[in-house]
């Protein structure tokens, strides 16, 4: 661990896995599409790709990506969330770990795509963003993609204000050797306009 609690832990106490799962189950039962992130990522991937779901939570996205034929590993620091993921998909790889110390988990640097959805980046422990992005970039194969979704204002975050701007995030990515390929306003691919409250970003690790 980094020695400092991430913002997610401060908000939830690390005990909301079951509640979080029930929330998405209700959304699915009411007809909402809860697989937008997985659909978005699949459009970027070849069949049978290797995906790391960083901050995987209850495994909703990683489980769907596996159903679509990809090989997925989930990592999260919240044991209550991982307990749900392990129950729902016991055959998948679920790792308990801090994204700022991803290098301690023994992962190979050959992932086709690393996903950090669900406001993972804004909810990191303060001061760890550049380290986490560097860790995520390090497990990508050459040509691999880092896909992130994050709120940029209070309306899209469980916080009073956004702790990171897009400019800061892009700088962290640049320092990790990543370049911006695409940016959208939603997981459905709507165009992003400057000043928007939510951004889905696709950064790439240059091919050798």
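^ structure tokens above, recovered residues below v
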């Amino acid at each position: 661990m980094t020695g400092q609690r991430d913002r997610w832990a401060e908000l939830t106490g690390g005990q909301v896995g079951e509640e979080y799962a029930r929330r998405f189950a209700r959304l699915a039962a009411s007809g909402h599409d809860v697989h937008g992130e997985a659909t978005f990522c699949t459009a970027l991937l070849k069949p049978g790709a290797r995906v790391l779901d960083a901050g995987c939570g209850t495994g909703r996205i990683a489980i769907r990506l596996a159903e679509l034929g990809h090989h997925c590993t989930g990592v999260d620091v919240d044991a209550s969330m991982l307990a749900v993921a392990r129950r729902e998909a016991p055959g998948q790889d679920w790792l308990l770990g801090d994204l700022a110390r991803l290098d301690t988990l023994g992962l190979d640097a050959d992932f086709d795509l690393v996903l950090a959805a669900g406001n993972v980046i804004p909810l990191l422990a303060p001061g760890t963003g550049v380290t986490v992005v560097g860790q995520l970039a390090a497990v990508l194969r050459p040509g691999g993609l880092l896909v992130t979704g994050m709120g940029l204002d209070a309306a899209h975050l469980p916080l009073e204000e956004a702790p990171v701007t897009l400019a800061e995030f892009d700088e962290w990515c640049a320092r990790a050797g990543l370049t911006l390929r695409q940016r959208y306003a939603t997981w459905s691919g709507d165009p992003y306009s400057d000043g928007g409250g939510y951004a889905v970003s696709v950064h790439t690790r240059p091919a050798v």
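The two ends are 32 Å apart (CA to CA).
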